Amino acid sequence: MMKFQACSNTISNLFFSVCVFFLPTMVIGGCTCDIEEAKKSDSSEVLHYKIGSIASVLVAGALGVSLPLLSKRIPTLDPKNDIFFMVKAFAAGVILATGFVHILPEAFESLTSPCLKANPWGKFPFTGFVAMLSSIGTLMVDSFATGFYHRQHFNPSKQVPADEELGDEHAGHIHVHTHATHGHAHGSAVPSEGSVTSELIRQRIISQVLEIGIVVHSVIIGISLGTAGSIDTIKPLLVALSFHQFFEGMGLGGCISQAEFESKSTAIMATFFSLTTPIGIAIGMGVSSVYKENSPTALTVEGIFNSASAGILIYMALVDLLAADFMNPRLQKNLKLLLGANISLLLGAGCMSLLAKWA
């Protein structure tokens, strides 16, 4: 498991470096499309609002991602409790709405802008194409990563010594089966730990991939607020992004909680999520003097990144979060719990969709 955590941390650090150092240089460009700019406000007052927005978004994100992690101290929020199904359904609805209602429309708007050349941007639906590719890519990463760690941790050859200790006469009567979704033992009253470990590996992969998808969008929306030059634009963005980070944090926190990472890894992931949007705001503040949101380079980079992020989040919400829980026999056999999960899903998607009115 140490190899898995080391690999996960390396991927996160590499991705973070790309977002911080590469993205700003890509979005700086000259304005080639004449669009009337919003009314500028006093620079010192705008600076105060932006600094305040960093603190507000940081607190909202940290609070959202931390609440599900308190499940160890709050029995009601324990993953084994029925209430957790409804909490997770709400969070999945938030993530699904983020992909469909927030990110994908922004990507369409960027990649179909009149500021871009008709060839090739106007002749092919790049937004849907990139979103599709990112969904397929997420599926492949999900599948290959799960298969790799199953082969590493559940190699049959590693179980041979345990059978030898029991003697050759019992070797044909005691054996353990481990699969991606279940495990069982024959001829022994000792429960198999293979299925538990397998599920933990699965949840850890899900939480890592989900965080990458969320982080991409978080940096971009942070840059959008950081480059805003009008208080009338910053105020609604500030409120909307605070709620946005809170709800997204709940979704990610629920996945991290189920993955049962060590305390250090959990803290790193929660901190990483909490800091991405504030860092994006700071980057936006730093490049605001040369950043042109309607330049072809900025529109192209934002559109492609948003499309990829939307594909990742939509896949994760539907396949890894909702399908896995809603097809769970425990949920199928309990009508009240099933209805509660469906209502919770609609509430989560509805609340996040409502925020699209402001951001």
Automatic annotation (TrEMBL):
<keyword id="KW-0812">Transmembrane</keyword>
<keyword id="KW-0406">Ion transport</keyword>
<feature type="transmembrane region" description="Helical">
    <location>
        <begin position="268"/>
        <end position="291"/>
    </location>
</feature>
<feature type="transmembrane region" description="Helical">
    <location>
        <begin position="83"/>
        <end position="104"/>
    </location>
</feature>
<feature type="transmembrane region" description="Helical">
    <location>
        <begin position="303"/>
        <end position="323"/>
    </location>
</feature>
<feature type="transmembrane region" description="Helical">
    <location>
        <begin position="49"/>
        <end position="71"/>
    </location>
</feature>
<comment type="similarity">
    <text>Belongs to the ZIP transporter (TC 2.A.5) family.</text>
</comment>
<protein>
    <recommendedName>
        <fullName>Zinc transporter 1</fullName>
    </recommendedName>
</protein>
<feature type="transmembrane region" description="Helical">
    <location>
        <begin position="209"/>
        <end position="231"/>
    </location>
</feature>
<keyword id="KW-0732">Signal</keyword>
<keyword id="KW-1133">Transmembrane helix</keyword>
<dbReference type="Pfam" id="PF02535">
    <property type="entry name" value="Zip"/>
</dbReference>
<dbReference type="InterPro" id="IPR004698">
    <property type="entry name" value="Zn/Fe_permease_fun/pln"/>
</dbReference>
<dbReference type="GO" id="GO:0005886">
    <property type="term" value="C:plasma membrane"/>
</dbReference>
<feature type="transmembrane region" description="Helical">
    <location>
        <begin position="335"/>
        <end position="356"/>
    </location>
</feature>
<keyword id="KW-0813">Transport</keyword>
<dbReference type="GO" id="GO:0005385">
    <property type="term" value="F:zinc ion transmembrane transporter activity"/>
</dbReference>
<keyword id="KW-0472">Membrane</keyword>
<feature type="signal peptide">
    <location>
        <begin position="1"/>
        <end position="29"/>
    </location>
</feature>
<feature type="transmembrane region" description="Helical">
    <location>
        <begin position="124"/>
        <end position="149"/>
    </location>
</feature>
<dbReference type="InterPro" id="IPR003689">
    <property type="entry name" value="ZIP"/>
</dbReference>
